[in-house]
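Sharing a chain and its predicted structure for anyone who wants a worked example. Both blocks are below, sequence first, tokens second.
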Amino acid sequence: MLVIVAATSATADAAEAGLRVEGATFLHQRAVGPDRILVTAGPFDDAKAALVVARMRGMGWPASDRPEGGGHLTAWNTHTAPVVVADRLWVCFPWSESDRFDAPPVVEIDPGAAVGPGAAFGTGSHPSTLLLLAELVARLRGGETVLDVGCGSGVLAIAAVRLGAATATAIDIAPAAVAATTANAAGNGVGGRVLASATPAEEVVGLFDVVLANIGAATLRALGPALVRRLAPNGWLGVSGISPAQISTVAAALPGLAIVSAPTLEDWASIVARFDGVPPG
């Protein structure tokens, strides 16, 4: 088993030094994107690899174990390949070995950033997340303010900023999600434009050009009026995490909004809505 650490040109040597301390006899650096260097080290048995990954992550490095070869490596490469959204956005793990020098905007998500693998969040590959990522790709024009309710790993908020939004406010009642979003935003170089907090949706102030929520039908029905209150007059709201059969009941919990579209993917659905006439004052 090998260990792979995501570093930059300025930190790759430090990552290599840390891996050498762990007893690695094989060390290799490879550039896979603009200022993204992967440091691979080993060999380790499975238990030692897990320990090294935990130690490197404890020091703040995005790290993962990696098979040395064969079918396990093929499966690992498939699992870590970028998620491509309409050829305009890639989402991947920081340690993905896919070349991304000529890629469109890339969002790197460490699902266990700042909280450890045991509290891991999504990486953007789930159909409910893909539905909203596709809407961001299609609808963002640049300069928008975005509210991401139930931010998890921060993938939607970070993607919005990488696609041109001015700022994103990311909220989640789980402190681990706030920590993960903050760490991932910093890792993507947008820490100053993504503000993560545990503020409840009902207590958020201000209006946003885009309001996003990927949190399930029951929660969407409960929070629907609060989401509508945060939507700017000419903005749009995108919700996901529901089944096609739940579209009508969730839409009914969004007072004053009209459905623009309700795309589906596999067994999941989302709703895009705008104000039906003049928004409430």
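Comments welcome. The first strand starts at residue 2 and ends at 7.
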